[in-house]
Amino acid sequence: MDAVKIALPGAVLLSVFVFLTPIMPNLMPLGPLSSSMDMGISAATVVWVVLTRRYCETSWLGSIVIVAVAAIFCLLVVGFVDKLLALVMRPGVYP
Q: What pTM value is reported for the model?
């Protein structure tokens, strides 16, 4: 149950910022946190680190390592799902 308490707020926060990406203008054209996507990733990472530290009762460094490993795993899963959907939804197959 603690994993849901950790993952859900960060995922919702990231999803909101990703949804707002086409709507929000860039804040700084060439700087960090220039797009809504960058702000969402940063905000979700901070939320995940703080919640991991609270619920897993680890140190700051330990929670950063846990979040980094979880983010790498998340990228692998998202990449796999993307490639799988690209194979299934080939152009011209579905109207």
A: 0.65
Q: For residues 14 and 16, give the distance between their C-alpha atoms in angstroms, rounded to a whole number.
A: 5
DSSP calls for 28-48: SSSSTT-SHHHHHHHHHHHHH
Which residues of the chain register pLDDT less than 50? none
Name the residue with tokens 């990472």: 45
CA 39, CA 62: separation in Å to the nearest integer?
23
Spans of all domains in the chain: 2-88
Number of alpha carbons in the 13 Å side-chain half-sphere of residue 49 = 13
Q: Classify burial at 86, counting beta carbons within 10 Å of its beta carbon; exposed 0-12, middle 13-18, buried 19 or more.
A: exposed
Note whether 36 and 21 are within 8 A (CB).
yes
The CA-CA-CA angle for residues 62, 75, 1, to 5°, reads: 55
Residue 35 in contact with residue 58, Cβ under 8 Å? Answer: no
